[in-house]
Amino acid sequence: MSRLIVVSNRVNPPSGNGEESVGGLAMALAAALKESSGVWFGWSGRTTETFTGDLNIETVGGVTAATVDLEEADLDEYYNGFANKTLWPLFHYRNDLAAFDRAYRDGYTRVNRRFAKTLAPLIQPDDVVWVHDYHLIPLARELRALGVKNRIGFFLHIPWPAHQVMINLPHHRQLVQAMFDYDLAGFQTAEYQQAFEEYVLTEAGGEQPEPDWLKAFGRTLQVGAFPIGIDASDFARMKTSARARRMRDLMTATTVFRRLIVGVDRLDYSKGLEERFLGFEQFLADNPDLRRQVLMLQIAPPSREAVEAYQEIRGRLDALSGRINGEYSDVDWTPFRYVNKNYRRDELAGIYAAARVGLVTPLRDGMNLVAKEFVAAQDPEDPGVLVLSRFAGAVGQMPDALLVNPNSPEDVADALKRALTMDRAERVRRWTALFETVQREDVSWWRDAFVRKLMGRDPAHAPAHAV
């Protein structure tokens, strides 16, 4: 049986005790690996003075992890630099925040080469390699240069931008060409797949011999859309755990006689937090009769604090949350709670279960697993309502949510009012349709769909990899 080798920037297998914090990638990869015989390879999260390529191998939560330390310059140029100051803002349509620095690009290439040299000796002839996300787009190219001929798949967890956005990136052609050293490139949605295809066909002069196949740069690449899911059944069970029940009871007691609106996101400009705050402020202004009936909780753990754009957004959100509470609070009621800390997944399950509204309004998001977790945590007899951005990748699977334009405070405010006043029959009908999809198209479905397509590739279409 072939081993599965998963490669991602960070290796952070869940411990299995529910202590994981916000973020879906780690949970999804761990769920995939627990049923596979393989290895999770990537950066340890530690830095060293000199890169040695020494591997640290351990088993955590039933997952074998192989990690390598990076130099401080690698962290600055590859991770904080090209990955999070160049690719992340550009792929989320924030050209104004993208930094195009040659040193960043050089660091990105260097780290991908180092990863490849460290990983290649671990790869056995029958192994299947599954590379994840924008940090590691050139990894297959570096592995091919070392003679690795195994099937290698790539999955992008964030959006692929439109052609006219992508060409803002210096040397964009080289980055796209590196994608053709994979056997299969997966995207979250058909929209992102089509954006990639448009670039290849228009900018690279490629061809599409048949659906889901592209020819360019002298190679052939299979592409597909694979919307990532959660372990829905496990998350639904988690809401009945002792810690989840305690958190739900705490939230219920805190919001007595009031209905809870909850948002859970990393502190990131792509999540639309400023726009969400303004939408809630608009709701309070438009609905004086409902003000004291609600409480909004926004959980936003800080991330990438070394990147200036993230420092700036935190300051703006602090000021905005203070303004809302200053304007609308009373001596016995505060409408808004803004919390910058992580919570365990079982605690989040309890918070979701206590909420009447899940407010998920990113400006652009690859998928957004919080939307799916909120649905999985609801009481089937009396569920809450999901309010979802039209620009989240999840929208294609979740049309029964209340869909909003997050850039419009009035749209968000109107959706909040509708969600808070929706009768039980409609809430149950919408939730039932949402949960059926979340449960059916779960993380195992996602994994199997991708690996099956990667393994079932027609050898006649195999790319002529340059070695």
Helix content: 40-55%
Number of domains: 2
Report how far apart the termini are.
26 Å
At the third CATH level, what is the topology name of the largest domain? Rossmann fold
The 3D shape can be described as globular
Q: Which structural class best describes the helix and strand composition?
A: alpha/beta
- The main sheet orders its strands as 3-4-2-1-5-6-7-9-8
- Biggest sheet statistics: 9 strands, mixed
- By CATH, the superfamily of the largest domain comes out as Glycogen Phosphorylase B
Task: Give a verbal description of the structure.
This protein has 16 helices and 15 strands. The protein is an alpha/beta fold. The protein has two domains: 240 residues, Rossmann fold (3-Layer(aba) Sandwich), CATH 3.40.50.2000; 209 residues, Glycogen Phosphorylase B (Rossmann fold, 3-Layer(aba) Sandwich). Strand 13, helix 13 and strand 14 form a beta-alpha-beta unit. The C terminus is likely disordered.
